[in-house]
From TrEMBL, chain A:
Protein topology in the membrane: Multi-pass membrane protein
Record-linked Pfam families: Caa3_CtaG (PF09678)
Protein name in the entry: Cytochrome c oxidase assembly protein
UniProt organism field: Fictibacillus barbaricus
Key words, A-Z: Cell membrane, Membrane, Transmembrane, Transmembrane helix
TrEMBL record, chain B:
Lineage, broadest ranks: Bacteria, Bacillati, Bacillota, Bacilli, Bacillales
Species assigned in the record: Fictibacillus barbaricus
Full protein name: DUF2243 domain-containing protein
Residue ranges crossing the lipid bilayer per the database entry: 24-46, 66-83, 90-110, 130-153
Keyword Transmembrane among record annotations: yes
Keywords: Membrane, Transmembrane, Transmembrane helix
InterPro entries in alphabetical order: DUF2243_membrane
Keyword set includes Ubl conjugation: no
């Protein structure tokens, strides 16, 4: 465990911590400023989206700075809590905040057009395909926990940063591809998204159970057991929300024409 | 629920137009409910089932993961279909229950025979005379399947008779 000290020391350095706090505050303020600008010129931006953005930034920050993040360097269980926050819960909140739409609305027209045309590029469509996003997301987890990558992550700071960035970005890509709440994101067919979601959730569950019996290199058996159960059931909680939101989209889209408004979800 | 579109038929008849959807909603909810019951009661409350069993085959692990994931989707999706049937005034509760019993029974039977015994994902309880548990488990499943089939066939006949009348 000597090598654990290396990344641990860097991440717990006051300078690095201050930098991270600064980064998260900037990240948060960007959105708030865009909302203020948008509300002056256009239709009011719903306040629940700002709330989701706050929660999303908060979850990411808690996973990277503070007592949990410090513990995550030495305890696999704490590591798993911080990964659930950074890789699943934070992306869900961020997706519900529709940041891409807000960005397009608040940029000057020329720049917004440029961004919109970039989003329409073929390469973006490939990355935003639910299946590709799922492979990047869950495939990354398989690589991390079934090879020596998890051990190496604690030795090389650049690997640590890359893996955590990937975890969040792949989580965001996957969640946004499945839910397609942000209108900028191309919406695939409900059945395709459902199928990919079930397979991805299954691959996540299979990996958790596999890790219970085959701990990643350098992880003590007891920690691997509690960590993998946390991954299994914690993943379920977020996935239940994803499934609910996806089914709700189907429910609203398949509303029979002859019963226009009175039969929505609230009448149940 | 005041809708004034009863031109062609009374809203009560709409359930005959959605016999399949009533069954599918039932199958999904039944499967999901049994999986949820299994997780909540046998894993979490009684601690009879184990999270991981060293003798699990790979295919058992994969099958367990797939069914676990699908069962959440089935529970939630089945209930949304139920809500959809209600707003269409097409809910046929008896037929829906037939679907629930069939879905629950088929999954429990598959779990009790293939998953527990052949792929050995875990046993019902880690005791010497586990075969007694296995028999009770699978007989319960078989009874649910038989009851589900009877209800499904009977309601289907009723729907056919009503359509021809």
């Amino acid at each position: 465990m000597h090598n654990h000290q290396l990344v641990n020391n860097v991440m717990n350095h006051d300078f690095v911590r201050a930098g991270l706090v600064f980064f998260f505050i900037i990240f948060f303020l960007f959105y708030v400023l865009a909302v203020i600008k948008n509300n002056k010129l256009r239709k009011q931006w719903p306040s629940y989206r700002t709330l989701f953005w706050t929660l999303g930034v908060f979850c990411s920050a808690v996973s990277m700075i503070g007592p949990l993040a410090e513990k995550a360097h030495v305890s696999f269980t704490a590591h798993m809590i911080s990964h659930l926050l950074l890789g699943m819960l934070a992306p869900l909140f961020i997706v519900l905040a529709s940041p891409a739409t807000l960005l397009l609305r608040s940029l000057p027209v020329a720049k917004a057009r440029l961004l919109a045309s970039l989003l329409k590029k073929k390469i973006m469509h490939i990355f935003l395909d639910p299946l590709v996003a799922a492979i990047l997301n869950i495939g990354g987890l398989w690589l991390l926990y079934t090879t020596d990558l998890y051990m190496l992550m604690h030795q090389y700071i650049w690997l640590f940063i890359f893996i955590h960035l990937h975890l969040f970005l792949a989580g965001y890509l996957f969640t946004t591809a499945i839910l397609s709440i942000d209108p900028v994101i191309p919406q695939k067919h409900f059945w395709y998204r459902s199928l990919v979601l079930v397979i991805a959730l299954a691959a996540h569950g299979i990996l958790s159970k596999y890790m219970y019996g085959h701990p990643p290199a350098g992880v003590p058996l007891k920690q691997a057991e509690s960590g993998s159960m946390l991954m299994y059931y914690g993943g379920d909680v977020v996935d239940i929300i994803l499934i609910f939101l996806l089914c709700l989209q189907w429910y609203n889209a398949s509303r029979p024409r002859q019963y226009p408004v009175s039969h929505n979800i609230n009448s149940l | 629920m005041e809708t004034s579109t009863a031109k062609s038929s009374a809203p009560f008849d709409n359930r005959y137009n959605f016999t399949a959807r009533n069954s599918i909603s039932g199958y999904l909810f039944g499967l999901g409910f049994v999986a949820f019951f299994d997780e909540a009661v046998f894993h979490q409350l009684l601690h009879w089932h184990h999270f991981y069993d060293k003798s699990t085959t790979s295919i058992g692990l994969i099958s367990d993961g797939l069914f676990h994931a699908f069962s959440w989707f089935a529970t939630i999706g089945g209930l949304f279909l139920f809500a959809d049937l209600r707003r269409r005034k097409a809910l046929w509760l008896v037929r829906w229950w037939g679907g629930v019993l069939l879905g629950a029974g088929v999954f429990q039977f598959f779990d009790g025979t293939i998953q527990h015994k052949v792929w050995r994902i875990h046993q019902i309880r880690y005791v010497d005379n586990v075969y007694i548990y296995d028999w009770i488990w699978n007989i319960t499943a078989a009874m649910m399947i038989i009851a589900g089939i009877i209800i499904t066939v009977r309601t289907k006949q009723k729907a056919k008779a009503a359509k021809h009348a």
